[in-house]
Each structure stands twice: as C-alpha cells, then as structure tokens.
Amino acid sequence: SSHLQKKRRAATARRQHLKSAMLQLAATEIEKEAAAKEVEKQNYLAEHCPPLSLPGSMQELQDLCRKLHAKIDSVDEERYDTEVKLQKTVKELEDLSQKLFDLRGKFKRPPLRRVRMSADAMLRALLGSKHKVCMDLRANLKQVKKEDTEKEKDLRDVGDWRKNIEEKSGMEGRKKMFEAGE
C-alpha cells in the first residue's frame, strides 16, 4: 500500500512540476510577445511618422497644417472602417461559439428518475389531449386454441434433439431403446 502511495505522490509531484514549468514557459513567451509588439510599433511609427520639421514662413506652415488635417481625416476613416470590421468579426465569433456551445450540448442533463407509468399515461403525456386510443394490453393478445397447446406439449416431450441423440447413443442408449420396444 505504501508503495502505491509513494507512486501516487511521485506522479502528483511530477504533475505539479510540469504545470509550473509550463506556466513559466508561458510567462516568458508572453513577455517576448509584448517586447516584439513594442519593437514592431516603434518600427511602424518611424516609417509612417517621420520627425516633424517646422517650416519658416506662414504660408508653408498653413500648407503643413492642411496636409496634417487631411492625413488625420484619412486615418480616422481608416480607423472607423477597421473598428466596424472588428465589431463584425467579434459578433461572428460570438455567434459561432454560441452555435458550438449549443451543438456540444454543454447544458447539464437533469438526473432522470424512474417513474412507474401505464402505457395510457405515457401516451397521454406524449400526445396530450389528442390521445384517444386506449392501450388495453390484454385486448391485443392472440387467442390460443387448445390443439396448439397439445402440439406444443408433444414438442416439449420430444425436447432438445441433442439430448435425445446423446441418450440413444452407445450401449446404454441401445439398451433403453430395446427396453422401450423401439
């Protein structure tokens, strides 16, 4: 028994160790991912947002402001379109996961209790008020004639053919047959 307990303890310890190792690995992966995202962001900003050099004259300054406003408008439109796409995708994802949830049947089935119920009660429960057929089980039984039972009795007397063969085989069987006058 103690050997089994040691084995169990070892398995549990191993499981715990594996779990903590996996969590550690996941944590470092998340850190790497965050760092990579930050680098990617910096690269994007460097490429798309060059450092601003302010011109000297009023006219050039106004032109720059107009350009910046136009750029802001186009970026806003882009952002809006992207947000709408994202919302649509999120909605689709939610619908699909709901479908999955429904298909998988995550809901808990209630424990079923055995209920004694007559055939009539069962049909009434299933069909409601439409149920008019009375299930008198005896009414559907076949009528048995007396001759049938006598045939069956003969068959019963003959019994299993294997048994008859065994009884009639060998010297013992021949003796019985002789005594019976067969």
From TrEMBL:
The keyword Phosphoprotein does not apply. Keywords: Acetylation, Actin-binding, Coiled coil, Muscle protein. GO terms for cellular component: troponin complex. Residues 18-106 form a coiled coil. SUPFAM superfamilies: Troponin coil-coiled subunits. GO terms for biological process: cardiac muscle contraction; skeletal muscle contraction. InterPro entries: Troponin, Troponin_I, Troponin_sf. GO terms for molecular function: actin binding. Gene3D superfamilies: 1.20.5.350, 6.10.250.180. Binds to actin and tropomyosin. Belongs to the troponin I family. Troponin I is the inhibitory subunit of troponin, the thin filament regulatory complex which confers calcium-sensitivity to striated muscle actomyosin ATPase activity. This is Troponin I, fast skeletal muscle.
